[in-house]
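Long-time lurker, first post. I've been practising inverse folding by hand and with some scripts of my own, and I keep getting stuck on stretches where the structure tokens seem ambiguous. Below is the full token string for one chain I'm working on. Before anyone asks, I'm not after the true native sequence, just a reasonable design that respects the backbone. If someone could post their per-position residues I'd love to compare against what I wrote down in my notebook.
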């Protein structure tokens, strides 16, 4: 049990761990949603993934799904860049902790609930949590500006 506790502490309290988690989340999203691409559709993998995961893909909403997918991945990349900044630059401990916490919760909310809203039916509570995640990331950016001032 101590090993799990130590690993969890490393993943969510160190700069390297936070970056590793964000890269892993991007990797999972890319691996799953990459199966929906054109070449995979030709091999029949797209239909299998849609059926197994119960995705709700309406052709008319394709562009909206792509926009949410892009923003979800982009927010995780922004989080990685922010972790590097807070790890390299001097700032008060409170700001470093608050910024890392807000941006971590923000990109995870954006990633999970954005994909849930776009690909698994339009649950508007998911959309609200997606926007909440984006707002937390924005607020973390404002705090980063204040910390660097």
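-- Answer (accepted) --
I ran through it position by position. Result:
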């Amino acid at each position: 049990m101590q090993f799990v506790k130590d690993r969890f502490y490393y993943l969510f309290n160190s700069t390297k761990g936070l970056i590793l988690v964000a890269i892993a989340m991007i990797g999972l999203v890319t691996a799953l949603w990459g199966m929906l691409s054109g070449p995979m559709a030709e091999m029949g993998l797209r239909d299998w993934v849609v059926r197994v995961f119960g995705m709700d893909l309406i052709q008319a909403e394709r562009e909206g799904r792509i926009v949410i997918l892009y923003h979800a991945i982009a927010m995780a990349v922004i989080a990685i860049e922010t972790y590097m900044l807070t790890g390299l630059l001097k700032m008060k401990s409170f700001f470093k902790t608050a910024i890392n916490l807000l941006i971590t919760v923000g990109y995870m909310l954006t990633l999970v609930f954005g994909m849930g809203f776009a690909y698994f039916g339009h649950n508007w509570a998911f959309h609200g949590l997606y926007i909440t995640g984006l707002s937390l990331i924005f607020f973390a950016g404002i705090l980063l500006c204040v910390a660097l001032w």
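A couple of notes from the structure itself: The longest helix spans residues 62-88. Helices lie at 2-13, 15-33, 38-42, 45-53, 62-88, 93-119, 124-148. Happy to go over any region you disagree with.
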